């Protein structure tokens, strides 16, 4: 009897497991119809560039315009990986990427880094037709490029609404990883609205779809066969796929496409502030009940922000009616607007909220000041900002600049921390970011100078040495 009961229980359990497996399999999506319909509008892109080359270590190079492997967020350039490079004076080298057709008369969308620096751009369709492409325009800030080929009645993709994407939804990519044309990979949306350190104007879609070199510029589809993103970046420590991929939302892309079609370039509004996130500690020090908004660490001279009366230490809680939960949301909101737009900024200042009217302007073409700021930050390994009034009051500090972020390098080696206030450097009193920048610039490399730092209210001197 016991043997019979045991046998029956095993059969019941086995049947239950088989039923569960079949039910689970039936719930998984079938992508075959989507791929058949969408593939004809996906294209392979290769480029040619006349360059002077040299032999690389081990006879290998990573590819055109490649960055160091330790780059935190690595743009992948779609080149056949680790190709042998013979040392010679001139060489034609090609990169491989992906793209897709957005109009029947031959407009093709891809990533800017796929075609950057190219002398000749080739577009190959799924039926093996090949065209030379004209570059209509590029937008480096969103990493998008619009091409035009001389053809009619082409298959096109259906564009979807990326704003409707939610984490957990299935998505699918079609592209040419490592040169393998029309490779299909699938996964889910891991997160939306991701802000990456190198791209402030794009709220990226994060997915776990397998993306590799050559997928750059290819489409990301939802289950309705609509393009909801353009595959652009991966997080990697090895140079290959690690389960974290990023796509440009279709809503951002099509806004760029419209401007590139009409003007050949993208124009954005400009506010003119340097900002940082509001941590829990900063929120408490300012008297905010929660850590939200964008804290202004610096107002650039002669900027719309300065003209409107925004100040260092202001926390922007909303802009043009859009709430700011994280500082990274502000550049995207501003970037979607146009020069001349008049908006209201709700800011938190001196313990109360107030509304400030701002008239936005076009982003200046001369980026020398911003480039110099970036160079200074890289040399010192940190980002500093003006000392907020509340912080100065709480710690009874008369002057100085606050370290907003430690990037590594010199700052990390000298033991500096986020939140430290630098009041004196090399015997000079520091009153502002401009003072600090000018003083630090005059410090020679490999020589220690005294730096006075206030950390959590306690002053100290440390030997500060810039090592390059």
TrEMBL record:
The lineage of its organism: Bacteria, Pseudomonadati, Pseudomonadota, Gammaproteobacteria, Oceanospirillales. Its EC number is 3.4.21.107. It holds the Pfam family Trypsin_2. It catalyses: Acts on substrates that are at least partially unfolded. The cleavage site P1 residue is normally between a pair of hydrophobic residues, such as Val-|-Val. Belongs to the peptidase S1C family. It comes from Marinomonas vulgaris. Residues 256-321, 367-457 form the PDZ domain. Might be efficient in the degradation of transiently denatured and unfolded proteins which accumulate in the periplasm following stress conditions. Keywords: Hydrolase, Periplasm, Protease, Repeat, Serine protease, Signal, Stress response. It is found in: Periplasm. InterPro entries: PDZ (IPR001478), PDZ_sf (IPR036034), Pept_S1C_Do (IPR011782), Peptidase_S1_PA (IPR009003), Peptidase_S1C (IPR001940). NCBIfam families: degP_htrA_DO. SUPFAM superfamilies: PDZ domain-like (SSF50156), Trypsin-like serine proteases (SSF50494). Residues 1-25 form the signal peptide. This is Probable periplasmic serine endoprotease DegP-like.
């Amino acid at each position: 009897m016991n043997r019979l009961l045991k046998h029956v229980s095993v059969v019941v359990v086995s049947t239950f497991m088989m039923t569960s497996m079949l039910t689970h399999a039936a719930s998984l999506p079938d992508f075959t119809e989507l791929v058949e319909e969408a593939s004809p509008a996906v294209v392979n892109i290769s480029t040619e560039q006349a360059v002077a080359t040299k032999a690389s270590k081990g006879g290998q190079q990573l590819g055109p315009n490649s960055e160091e492997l330790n780059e935190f967020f690595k743009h992948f350039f779609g080149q056949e990986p680790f190709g042998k490079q013979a040392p010679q004076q001139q060489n034609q080298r090609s990169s491989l990427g992906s793209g897709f057709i957005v109009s029947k008369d031959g407009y093709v969308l891809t990533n800017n880094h796929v075609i950057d620096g190219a002398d000749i751009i080739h577009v190959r369709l799924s039926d093996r037709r090949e065209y030379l492409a004209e570059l209509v325009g590029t937008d480096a800030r969103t990493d998008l490029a619009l091409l035009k080929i001389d053809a009619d009645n082409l298959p096109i993709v259906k564009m979807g609404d990326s704003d409707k994407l939610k984490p957990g939804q299935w998505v699918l990519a079609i592209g040419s990883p490592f040169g393998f044309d029309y490779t299909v990979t699938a996964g889910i949306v891991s997160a939306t609205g991701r802000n990456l350190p190198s791209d402030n104007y794009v709220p990226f879609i994060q997915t776990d779809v397998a993306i590799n070199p050559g997928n750059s510029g290819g489409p990301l589809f939802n289950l309705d066969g609509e393009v909801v993103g353009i595959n652009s970046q991966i997080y990697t420590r090895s140079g290959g796929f690690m389960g974290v991929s990023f796509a440009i939302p279709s809503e951002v892309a099509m806004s760029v496409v419209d401007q590139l079609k009409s003007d050949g370039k993208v124009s954005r509004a400009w506010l003119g502030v340097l900002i940082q996130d509001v941590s829990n500690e900063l929120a408490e020090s300012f008297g905010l009940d929660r850590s939200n908004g964008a804290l202004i660490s610096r107002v650039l001279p002669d900027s719309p922000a300065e003209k409107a009366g925004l100040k260092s230490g202001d926390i922007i809680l909303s802009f043009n009616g859009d709430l700011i939960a994280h500082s990274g949301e502000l550049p995207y909101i501003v970037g979607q607007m146009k020069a001349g737009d008049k908006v209201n900024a709700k800011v938190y200042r001196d313990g109360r909220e107030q509304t400030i009217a701002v008239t936005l302007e076009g982003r200046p073409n001369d980026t020398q000041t911003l480039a110099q700021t970036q160079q200074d930050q890289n040399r010192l390994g940190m980002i500093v900002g003006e000392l907020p009034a509340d912080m100065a009051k709480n710690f009874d500090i008369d002057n100085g600049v606050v370290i907003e972020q430690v990037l590594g390098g010199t700052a990390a080696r000298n033991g500096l921390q986020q939140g430290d206030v630098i009041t004196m450097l090399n015997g000079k009193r520091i009153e502002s970011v401009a003072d600090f920048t000018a003083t630090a610039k005059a410090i020679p490399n490999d020589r220690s100078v005294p730096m006075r730092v206030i950390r959590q209210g306690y002053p100290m001197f440390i030997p500060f040495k810039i090592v390059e």
